[in-house]
Amino acid sequence: MTGRRMPLEAMCTIASLNHDGCGVGHCDGKVVFVDGALPGEEVRFRYLNRKRRFDTGVTQEILVSSPHRVAPRCPHFGVCGGCRLQHLDPTEQLAAKEGVVREAFTHIARVECADWAPAVAGPIFGYRRKARLGARVVDKKGGLLVGFRERRHSYIAPLSLCHTLDVRIGQRLVDLKGLMEGLSCPESIPQVEFAAGDEAAALVFRHLRDLTDEDVRALAAFGDDYGFAMYAQNGGPETVQDIGGRRAPLRYALPEFGVELSFGPTDFIQVNGETNKAMVAQAVGWLGLSGESRVLDLYCGLGNFTLPIARRAASVFAVEGAAALVDKGRANARQNGLDHVEYATADLDSARLADLLGERRFDAALLDPPRTGALAAVQALAERKIPRLVYVSCNPATLARDAQWLVHSGGYRLERAGVVDMFPHTHHIEAMALFTRTS
User: Fold this and answer.
1) pLDDT tens for residues 136-155?
2) Fewer CB under 10 Å: which end of the chain, C or N?
3) Which of the four CATH numbers 3.30.1390.10, 2.40.50.1070, 1.10.150.120, 1.20.120.1730 does domain 130-196+201-248 have?
4) What is the rounded CA–CA span in Å between residue 191 and residue 385?
């Protein structure tokens, strides 16, 4: 008995984009996700993988092109996995991302949002102030490769430039590669982390073998020549050490609130500085604060939301799971003269959050969790019947899961939502939602 031979290629019409930025169509009775295809296009694609419920493919030829297709600026687009949507008009990128969030609310949460806020957006190129570049020596590809991972593989896509990175590093990738090729152990440096504040910028070299004195001198000289604070890291975050004399502090300001935050070169910060300013302003506005407001800030980190909230509220109780970030948050509060912020360290995925909060009462709460969401936290907040919750999310699926519980079990309604375009040209989606008490 012989089975039916499966075709290598097929054609389909694309209806929408999925959360990974792939075109969604139907072919041979199944959903197919086609890399490189846009809504409204008819494409010929090559199958990559065929599964029982869906197939995946990559565009081979565009038979009918979308009017929203644009020429990607980056010469590495299509190979580098850093960007997925440079071929789509930026306005349509926002519409597609909002569509993903709307669909998550509809199909996962089973709730509708009547009030959709305009997308929070900022620069679409040269915006990325935090990044981890991969590095690998591959003799078959000519030696050292420096860049992001390839689109569908774990290989390093060698980059000569990057238009989404802050220009201080995005235009220096060839120079960075040249520096690393001259070191004694380029094969033992798998990662270079970039971090930029409003004024200073830093590079952190993750190394698996000890650097020589000559290596250290070369790294320090590169920092002096191009204006980077240089660091070496041979283990966890606690092993980061500065190289050379340049130790310009990393800081960014939120001028609307009169605050400035200091951070370390490996600390988490929002990658798009201008978009972050607008996002913080919107979040503070949605909290509906007065000078008497008592606010809870969960997953507070360094104080990105905490300190602006403190400028508008009577008190803030800020909670974070990482003790090192809590210490830095406290330091930032002192630096900004904010003495009505109380910090605590706690596992926010634990049911013990209720014990930590004790008898404190809050008028509003903000939470900015990781991709895993904040189900335990929202359940603890609902128990306290906090009137307003602003939820900032980097994962529409877990936002929708938590929204489902809040609306159907927690006594809240989804009052407002909107997309935050923190990562233009990529498939990453940030969103914000406002929940208010119904009972």
Assistant:
1) 999 999 999 999 999 888 89
2) N
3) 2.40.50.1070
4) 45
Mean pLDDT of the chain: 95
Residue 35 near residue 58 (C-beta atoms within 8 A): yes
Q: What is the mean pLDDT of residues 105-115?
A: 95
Q: What pLDDT is stored for residue 1 in this prediction?
A: 39
Q: Which residues of 343-368 are buried (b: 16+ CB within 10 A; e: fewer)?
A: beebebbeeebeebbeeeebbbbbbb
Q: For residues 253 and 269, what is the distance between their CA atoms, to the nearest angstrom?
A: 12
Query: Given the DSSP bridges, would you call strands 259-263 and 388-393 parallel, antiparallel or unpaired?
Result: unpaired
By the 8 A CB rule, do 215 and 183 touch? yes
Tell me the per-residue pLDDT of 150-181, one tens digit each, with 9 for 90 and over: 988 889 999 999 999 999 999 999 999 999 99
pLDDT tens track for 199-224 = 999 999 999 999 999 999 999 999 99
Of 403, 376, 380, which Cα lies nearest the Cα of 391? 403
- Domain residue spans in the chain? 9-69, 94-123+251-437, 130-196+201-248
34-83: pLDDT as tens digits: 999 999 999 999 999 999 899 999 999 999 999 999 999 999 999 999 99
Name the active-site residue from 22, 80, 83, 394. 394
Q: Which single residue is written with the structure tokens 């604060």?
A: 289
Q: Do domains 9-69 and 130-196+201-248 have the same CATH topology?
A: yes
- CATH architecture, domain 9-69: Beta Barrel (2.40)
- Per the CB < 8 A criterion, the answer to whether 44 and 9 are in contact is yes
pLDDT tier at 4, thresholds 50, 70, 90: low
CATH placement of domain 94-123+251-437: 3.40.50.150
Name the more confident of 78 and 192. 192
